[in-house]
Amino acid sequence: MQNNMTKITRLTMSDIQKLIPWIFWALSALPLIALMILGTSTRYLADDYSTASILVNQGFWKAQSFWYHAWSGRYSFTFLVSLIEMVGVRIVPWLPMMGLFTWATSLFWTIKCLFAVLEIKMGKIWIAIVVNILIFGTIRSFSEYAQVIFWQTGILTYQVSIIFITSMIGIFLTRFYLLPCYKLRTWEIVLWFLAFFIGGGFSETWVVIQISLLGLSLFFFSFTEKSSNRNDILYVLFIGFMASCVSLLVIVKAPGNMNRDNVLAELSFDLLRYSVIRALMDVPVFLMEWFLGHTILVTMLILTGLSAGLIIESSLVGTIDQIRLGIYLLISAYVLMLAGFVPQFAVMGIRPAERVIFMPMFLFLCAFELFVIFTGSRLKKFLPIKVWNVIQIILMSVLFISIFWISERSASSLFQIIPSMQLYARLWDSRDAFLRQASLRGEKVTVAASLRRNPALHDIQSTFWIEGDLQDIPDHWINQMAASYYKLPSIALH
User: Which of 416, 434, 465 is the last residue of a domain?
Assistant: First the structure.
């Protein structure tokens, strides 16, 4: 009888240990799921009307020429947003879900590849937990995260850049470390060049970060990499660096910069020097402000990394190398943060908007979390098994509290505004149908309902969705672009 009870107790404890990571995953995934649900209520906002109206009135290929000559040299963004808008506004509600899912999937795969290269054994569920925490941590770091998560223009500019570089790192690790079965071929060189050229065309800020990333990688692999495919690695990094420089040149030389950012069209070494100095001064201030303003979030990131580090398996020598790698990644991420600040200081002389910092912040948090994971793995080697078990129990308990406290509070606040957002979507769709009918009737003056002053949308009156909607002033640029999109002379609100 006693033996049976002992077996049941052991089985129960074993089941609990297996269940704990799944609880962590569910808790950390809940706010992301809430964001996906909220995303289904998004519609055209602000600049979306501009790109959609040019596509409707000029067609796909003329739209590419128009934006390059009239506004911005971001050729990849222009191409992708025009392609997406060919489907129409009905695809917009799916973009936030698709973006977050693709972001999480690519990050999961890339971390899995990195751990395989470093010979680190970590369960897939723990990798998924780290992915959730990193994405949530990046989003939670900014009050204006909606501009990257929900806004079509933001998703196709900033979020796409994150997904691109995450996927490229995974492809790089797979090609040269996990499946290095053949020498580099000519067609591969062309594909690497095109990939980095396309990737650099989504944002002026991103292409500068991309150049910096490839430059740092060239430096790192030139002095540390001793494998048989070292020359192929260096060649690909050099090709990517040159493709990124060409991308930057294409963006900077776009005639549209004279209308949008005339400073960008007239860059000088003195201006770049000034911008670098300002970035060097402001980045430490920004990171300190972030740390002091998000101490609970930082604590959750550290606890997650240490907990993950204590459960992974790796050799002692490998752990020492991992610590060095973690330090290099942190330094590199800091340099990339500087690179992300420079373009905005060059163009406007001020700190970049949060949506622009979103990209380098994600890279910084990834480097930070990997460093903490490596540190946890290193500490495990020097702890007696009894001490290690006690520390693991304490870490898991505190991690549960921190994830529950932050994630569940965030998820709860997001779920609370879902009804208001669903109402917003229904009202937007009704107004959209009304404006399309007015266009068919050839009305000269069209008066539509204002969502900004609708009392039923009280919960989201001051949010991103309402602020980016049609304005009360008929000659506001958003109204003008919307009128052009609907092919109406003007749109007034009541």
Answer: 416
Structure tokens at 93: 């509600």
d(C-alpha 320, C-alpha 133), whole Å? 25
Range of the domain at 441: 419-493
Q: What pLDDT is attached to residue 317?
A: 47
Helix extents (H) in 253-384:
257-260, 269-293, 295-311, 316-347, 354-381
CA 112 from chain centre, in angstroms, equals 18
Same domain, 257 and 110: yes
Helix axis angle for 385-416 and 418-441, nearest 10°, is: 40
Residue 48's φ and ψ, nearest 5 degrees, are -60, -35
Residue type, 425: A
Determine, yes or no, domain membership for 176. yes
Output the pLDDT for position 5: 47
pLDDT of residue 30: 94
454 DSSP 8-state letter:
-
Hey, CA dihedral for 116, 118, 121, 127, is it positive or negative? Answer: negative
Q: Let me know if residue 3 belongs to a domain.
A: no
In whole angstroms, give the CA distance from residue 339 to residue 212.
7
DSSP character at residue 86: T
Element (H, E) at 92: none
User: Is residue 482 a contact partner of residue 467, using CB atoms and an 8 Å limit?
Assistant: no
Specify the pLDDT at position 72: 82
The DSSP output letter for 353 is: P
Residues 393 and 434 grouped into a single domain:
no
Boundary residue ending a domain (416, 437, 461): 416
Q: What is the pLDDT of residue 11?
A: 47
CA gyration radius for the chain?
Answer: 25
Rounded Cα–Cα distance for residues 239 and 350 (Å): 33
pLDDT-flagged residues of the chain (< 50): 1-2, 5-9, 11, 316-317
Encoded tokens for 156: 């196709």
